[in-house]
Design goal:
This protein has 524 residues and is an alpha+beta fold. It contains 22 helices and 6 strands.
């Protein structure tokens, strides 16, 4: 019999959502956390002060340190603290012949207190930045293949959203109907509510996510017009003046004077990053970068200075066309860098809606098919595989993130490779959950992994209070909102996992009457 459009869309919605569903769930979980990556950075570096404004005293200390410890270096770098916290006044330099190690900077790195200029021993961590990069670069695989995988999953997400709107002809009506304890009907209601509540956000974040990986999906526009990608980027984003080292010594101008020159050029905006090539040479160049604080500012992102005199050097300004400007808007909407805390929380809560949508969709696939199994106690291999993968991903990814935070506090700060071991802890916990899901009966595995997630998230504020002076109560008394809100959020997540486990423990599945089964199948 020929299928109707709704039935065809239902088939497409089911399989476009299931096959890449675990990847989409992971993208939503880690991407949602990344909206607060600077705040996570701050929590994972408790040695840093809450104050982020840099004083002239700290800049003078940075100048003195670079002139003594980094004399003769090929380059200096100065990273100023982000306004939302998570970083100090960071200095690094690259000595001649130093191994950069697969493109990563391996030179010495020092963090200073932005107020006093005192050196701060900050624990090694990749903080929220790792969660941000993981949501599109994944891990343990090449970046290129990871981005292809993420692109395919995002395309499937777009198809699933559009086909889902066509499939559920009463989707907006059903949004207001959350019928509890109704078996498959409850799962469908929860899936609809999570999807419709933030439908504009889901469409926006999926489409703009594809736009951020535009050249991974469609590289032909570059290959048809440029010999390689380097030529494209050199044309689109002109580099600054290139000057060969002269061999004539000249002291580097004070960092404060460079910042003042850049602020004059930018109309008062502060730089966020300073790079000095050939410091101590007459031909040295300082490049100062700034971050945008609002849309439509129209100022250049960088300015080039003579490193010895702090005078501006001529450079070729970039003139982005309409396509580049459109692409930039798409990236801005996806990252939400412009959002204040109100809009940032809205992004975060909408992202949680995406997490719930993906999780309920994956569970719904099993709930629908379990009722049709000839013997639900002995499902076939495909059903068991999907069911166990659901447990391993839906419970495993949050458990991994909790282990990541706990490792930050419990591992010795002097441990070599501290940042790598934090990441290892994430994947060990996640992998252990996946193995546990395959070894235990499904219902027991759900209850046990949800209980583990509850215990781990509840432990985070306690471990933080035991290992630092910035627990919930001291942070509230000191007005340290970042630490207080982070710990309270961990408790809220623990409560959410506890409630989910408690609800599951009380649930007693009932056999579905034959007539109702036919109705449910017709409705799906």
């Amino acid at each position: 019999m020929k299928q109707s459009l709704r039935q065809s869309m239902a088939w497409l919605h089911t399989w476009a959502g299931l096959v890449p569903g675990w990847v989409l769930y992971v993208i939503f979980v880690f991407g949602t956390a990344a909206f607060f990556q600077h705040e996570i950075d701050a929590w994972m570096r408790p040695e840093l002060p809450a104050e982020t404004r840099v004083t002239p005293r700290a800049l003078a200390a940075a100048d003195a340190l670079l002139r003594t410890r980094a004399a003769g270096a090929e380059s200096w770098s100065v990273s100023l603290p982000a306004a939302r916290g998570g970083s100090g006044l960071e200095l690094s330099w690259q000595m001649p012949g130093a191994d950069r190690g697969h493109g990563r900077r391996e030179g010495p790195r020092v963090t200073l207190d932005p107020e006093t200029g005192a050196e701060i021993p900050v624990r090694e961590t990749r903080g929220g930045f790792f969660l941000y990069r993981f949501h599109f670069d994944l891990h343990f695989m090449s970046v290129m293949w990871a981005r292809y995988l993420v692109c395919v999953a995002a395309l499937a997400m777009l198809v699933a959203i559009l086909s889902g709107v066509v499939t559920h002809k009463k989707i907006f009506t059903d949004f207001f109907m959350l019928r509890l304890r109704k078996g498959q009907r409850s799962w469908l209601d929860a899936h609809n509510a999570a999807a419709v509540l933030a439908l504009p956000f889901h469409l926006m974040i999926t489409y703009t996510g594809l736009a951020t990986l535009l050249f991974t999906l469609m590289p032909w526009a570059i290959s048809a017009n440029f010999p390689d990608r380097q030529a494209f980027y050199a044309t689109t984003f002109p580099q600054g003046p290139e000057r060969e080292a002269s061999g004539e010594p000249a002291p580097v101008a004070p960092i404060g004077r460079m910042i003042a020159a850049a602020r004059q050029h930018w109309g008062g905006a502060l730089p966020t990053y300073i790079s000095v090539t050939s410091p101590g040479d007459r031909a040295g160049v300082a490049t100062l970068y700034t971050a945008r604080s609002q849309w439509g500012e129209g100022r250049p992102d960088s300015v080039y200075l003579d490193a010895a005199t702090a005078t501006r050097l001529p450079s070729t300004p970039s003139h982005p066309g309409g396509a580049t400007a459109t692409h930039r808007v798409m990236v801005d909407l996806h990252t939400g860098w412009f959002a204040g805390y109100g809009l940032r929380w809205l992004y975060f809560l909408s992202g949680l809606g995406g997490v719930a949508m993906a999780a309920t969709g994956l569970c719904l696939w099993c709930v629908k098919r379990r009722a049709r199994l000839p013997d639900p106690a002995r499902p076939h291999f495909g059903f068991r595989l999907v069911e166990r993968l659901n447990i391993g991903f839906i419970s495993g990814a949050p458990i991994g993130i909790a282990a990541y935070f706990l490792a930050n506090r419990l591992l010795p700060t002097t441990l070599p490779g501290h940042a790598d071991w934090e990441i290892n802890a994430l994947f060990i916990a996640w992998g252990g959950t996946l193995v546990w899901a395959f070894l235990r009966p499904a219902r027991r595995a759900w209850l046990e992994t949800l209980a583990a997630a509850t215990a781990l998230y509840a432990a985070i504020p306690l471990v933080n209070a035991a290992t630092t002076t910035r627990g919930v109560i001291p942070s509230l008394l000191a007005g340290d909102r970042t630490f207080a809100v982070f710990d309270l959020m961990m408790l809220a997540l623990a409560a959410g996992f506890a409630f989910t486990g408690w609800t599951l423990a009380r649930h007693k599945p009932r056999a579905m009457p034959a007539r109702k089964r036919r109705d449910e199948e017709a409705m799906a």
